[in-house]
Write a structure and sequence with these properties.
The protein is an all-alpha fold. 70% of the residues lie in helices and 0% in strands.
Length: 505
C-alpha cells in the first residue's frame, strides 16, 4: 500500500483565494441594511410586547381592585350593623354617656374575653368532633375479646373502666365494711374514688336521664372551662395566637377522650387550672376553696401543697424583685397547711367510717395485685416504682438493672428539661415548679402502669404551652397531627381492644 501523504500547512489554500473580486462593498451594504431592519423589527416587537404587558397588568389591577372593593363593601356592611348591636348593650350605653375611662377599660376587657372564649369554644368543639369520631371507630372495632364486647356503643365506652366505679359509688355509697378475698386481703372498692364527681354526675343525671349523661356533660363542660383558664394562664407568657395553639394541643391531646367520658379528670383540671391561675396572679384568697374542691374530686392535692411550699421559697429568694408582703406569707403558709390536711382528709374519713385507719391505702394497694399477685399490703413512699421496675423489665425482657438505669436517665432528662430547655423556661418558674411537684408526687405514691399516661394530664399547662412557643406553621400543625394520632392510639387500645393488663386507661 502506498504511503498516505498528509497535507502540510503550506498546502492549505490562502484566504485570498475565497474572495470575490469587486463585491466586498456590496456585501457590507447588505449587512448594514439587514442590521438596521433587524433593530427596527426588535424595537417594534418590544413596543408591542410592552403594550400587551401594560394591558395585562391593567386588567389584573382592575380585577384586583374590583375584588377589594367587593370585600371592603361586605366588611363595611357588616360593620355598619355593629353600632346597632352595641347600642343594645347597657354597659356600652353607660360608658358612652359618662365618658368614664374606667368603663371603657372594662368594655375592652369584656370584648377581649368574648374573643378569647369564642376562639376557645371553636377549637374545643372541633376537637370534640374529632374525638367522637375516634370513639365511634373504637366502638366499631370492639370484639368479643374486648372488655366492652362485640357490639359496643360509644355510650358503653363513656361509662366503662373507672367511670363504672364512679357510677357504682353514686348509687351505692361507700362500704362500712371493707370487702376482702379468701386470703383476707382488702379488694377493690369505692373508697378509691373521691365523692364530688360521682354525686355531681348523679344529680345532673337526674335531669338528663341517667348518671352517664350527667357524667359526660360534666366532663365536657369542665374541659371547655379548663381550656379557657389554660388560655388565660399561657397568655401571661405567650402571645394570643400561641396561647390558642396551646388550647388546641390540650383539647386534642393524646388523652383528650377524658373530656367526654365518665372520669373525674376534667373536673379536677378545672379546679387545678383555676388554682394555678390564682397563684400566678397572687390572688391567694381564691385558692382556699379550690384546694377543698380538688381534694374532693381526685387525688393530687398533696402535690399542690408541695408546689405552694416551693412557690413560697422562690418568692422569698426573689423578694427584692417582687416584694413579699406579710399577708402573702400568711396566705402561702395557710394554703400549704390546708393542702396537707385536705390531702390526708379522705384517708381519715375512710378510716373513721370503716374502723380501719388504713382503709384507703389498703383499697388503693388492692389494684396493684392486678399486676403483681403477691404485692405487699403495706404502703411505703416510692415503693411503687421500686416494685414496678423489675416487673416491667421482666415483661420487656430486660434485666432489672437496665430498668433502673432507664428510670434514672428519664428522671435526669426531665430535670434537665425543667431547668434548661428554653421553651419550657419560657413558661415561667411557677408552672415548672408545679410540674416538678406533681411528678415527684407520682414517683412517691404511684405504681406505674398504663394509667400513668392519664395521670400525667395535670402537667398540661407546661407541656401545651412549651409546645406552642415555636411559631413555625409546620411545627404547630405537626404537633397537632401527632396529638391526634396518639389520641387514636390510646383510644383504640384502651377502648377498642381493651383486652389485657396494659390496655387500662
Amino acid at each position: 500500500m502506498p504511503p498516505i501523504s498528509l497535507p502540510t500547512p503550506d498546502a492549505r489554500p490562502a484566504p485570498s483565494s475565497f474572495r470575490v473580486p469587486g463585491h466586498g462593498r456590496a456585501w457590507a451594504c447588505f449587512v448594514l441594511i439587514g442590521a438596521a431592519l433587524l433593530a427596527a423589527a426588535l424595537w417594534a416587537a418590544g413596543g408591542i410586547g410592552r403594550e400587551q404587558a401594560y394591558a395585562e397588568v391593567a386588567a389584573a389591577a382592575r380585577n384586583a381592585a374590583a375584588l377589594k372593593v367587593a370585600l371592603l363593601t361586605a366588611e363595611l356592611d357588616k360593620q355598619r350593623s355593629l353600632p346597632f348591636v352595641l347600642a343594645q348593650d347597657s354597659e356600652v350605653r353607660t360608658a358612652l354617656a359618662t365618658g368614664d375611662p374606667a368603663r371603657y377599660g372594662a368594655l375592652n376587657l369584656k370584648f377581649e374575653a368574648l374573643s378569647r372564649d369564642t376562639g376557645a369554644a371553636v377549637i374545643y368543639l372541633l376537637a370534640r368532633v374529632v374525638t367522637t369520631l375516634l370513639m365511634v371507630a373504637a366502638a366499631a372495632a370492639s370484639t368479643a375479646s374486648s372488655r366492652f364486647g362485640a357490639h359496643a356503643t360509644i355510650g358503653d365506652l363513656a361509662v366503662g373502666w373507672d367511670a363504672a366505679w364512679y357510677w357504682f359509688t353514686a348509687l351505692n355509697g361507700y362500704p362500712v365494711h371493707l370487702p376482702t378475698n379468701t386470703a383476707g386481703l382488702v379488694t377493690e372498692n369505692s373508697w378509691a374514688f373521691m365523692p364530688l364527681y360521682a354525686y355531681l354526675a348523679q344529680g345532673l343525671g337526674t335531669a338528663l336521664g341517667g348518671w352517664g349523661a350527667g357524667a359526660v356533660a360534666i366532663s365536657l363542660i369542665s374541659g371547655y372551662l379548663a381550656s379557657i383558664v389554660l388560655f388565660t394562664i399561657t397568655r401571661m407568657r405567650l402571645d394570643e395566637t400561641s396561647s390558642m395553639w396551646a388550647v388546641a394541643f390540650f383539647a386534642s391531646g393524646p388523652l383528650a377522650a377524658l373530656f367526654q367520658v365518665g372520669y373525674a379528670e376534667s373536673l379536677f383540671l378545672l379546679w387545678l387550672f383555676l388554682a394555678l391561675w390564682a397563684v400566678l396572679r397572687r390572688r391567694y384568697g381564691w385558692v382556699y376553696p379550690l384546694i377543698i374542691l380538688m381534694a374532693a374530686t381526685r387525688p393530687g392535692v398533696l402535690a399542690f401543697a408541695l408546689f405552694l411550699g416551693l412557690h413560697g421559697i422562690v418568692r422569698l429568694v426573689h423578694r427584692r424583685a417582687e416584694p413579699l408582703r406579710g399577708r402573702d406569707v400568711a396566705h402561702i403558709l395557710s394554703l400549704g397547711a390546708l393542702g396537707v390536711v385536705a390531702g390526708f382528709a379522705w384517708q381519715f374519713i375512710a378510716g373513721w367510717v370503716t374502723g380501719n385507719p388504713n382503709a384507703y391505702l389498703l383499697t388503693e394497694l388492692s389494684w396493684r395485685r392486678n399486676w403483681i399477685a403477691d404485692a405487699s399490703p403495706h404502703f411505703a413512699p416510692f415503693d411503687g416504682f421500686a416494685v414496678a421496675v423489675p416487673f416491667w423489665s421482666t415483661q420487656w425482657g430486660w434485666p432489672a438493672a437496665v430498668g433502673f438505669v432507664v428510670l434514672a436517665l428519664a428522671l435526669v432528662g426531665i430535670a434537665t428539661l425543667l431547668l434548661f430547655e428554653p421553651h419550657v423556661r419560657r413558661m415561667g418558674v411557677e408552672l415548672r415548679l408545679w410540674t416538678a411537684s406533681y411528678l415527684l408526687y407520682l414517683l412517691a405514691v404511684f405504681f406505674p402502669q398504663s394509667s400513668i399516661f392519664r395521670l400525667l394530664v395535670p402537667v398540661a399547662p407546661l407541656t401545651a404551652g412549651a409546645l406552642a412557643v415555636a411559631r413555625a406553621w409546620w411545627w404547630r400543625v405537626g404537633v397537632l397531627l401527632v396529638c391526634i394520632a396518639l389520641q387514636w392510639l390510646w383510644i383504640y387500645n384502651v377502648y377498642g381492644l381493651a383486652n389485657t393488663f396494659w390496655r387500662i386507661p
